[in-house]
Amino acid sequence: MPQERRSSRLEEQILEILEKAEREPRWRRWLRRLRRPRFLVPHRGLHAWRFSFPESTALLAGAFLLALLAVLVRDWSRTLAMLLAIASLVSFFAPVVRQLARGPSWTPDQPRRWRGRDIVLPPARRGIIGWFRYQWWRLRRRW
């Protein structure tokens, strides 16, 4: 008589995930392959030293340049200087307005759950503010 071996809870969960993956429709697997990020190898030469800025940083730099241009043009044309100053203000507040229009992305409606437990992921560690957020998150998770 073969002895029945009880599988552990982890093995049961792995088997369930594998069964779900096998039941996944073919079009979804195809779509996932298309969405997979592709890493491009940078070409050597002139394009290797090009810098890229985040969009909000570019808007703030544009606001500064428009304000400087408005100051330089104010004696020549007051109307043009006023238009440049307005464009500078719009460019300065555009990142804030875009963030407010997107909604509070940092507070989900319901916590993500898996198997009845809340999933708590650490915040992104981009920049010095992200590093502080991560350290604060780590301190709160200890208790």
Number of strands: 2
Give the termini separation: 50 Å
CA-based gyration radius: 26 Å
Mean pLDDT: 77
List the helices and strands in order.
HHHHEEH
Largest sheet entry = 2 strands, antiparallel
Beta-strand proportion = under 5%
SS field, number of helical segments: 5
Overall helicity = 55-70%
Q: What structural class results from the helix and strand content?
A: mainly alpha
Largest sheet strand order? 1-2
Features:
two-stranded antiparallel sheet; 5 helices; about 60% helix; about 5% strand; elongated
Describe the structure.
There is one protein chain. The chain is mostly helical. The chain is 59% helix and 3% strand. It contains five helices and two strands; from the N terminus they run H-H-H-H-E-E-H. A two-stranded antiparallel sheet has the order 1-2. Strand 1 (113-114) and strand 2 form a beta hairpin. Helix 3 packs antiparallel against helix 4 (78-102). It is elongated, with a radius of gyration of 26 Å.
Q: Helices and strands in order, then pairings?
A:
Elements lengths: L8 H15 L2 H10 L19 H19 L4 H25 L10 E2 L2 E2 L8 H16 L1
Antiparallel strand pairs: 1-2
Q: What is the gist of this entry?
A:
The protein is mainly alpha-helical. The chain is built from 5 helices and 2 strands, in the order H-H-H-H-E-E-H.
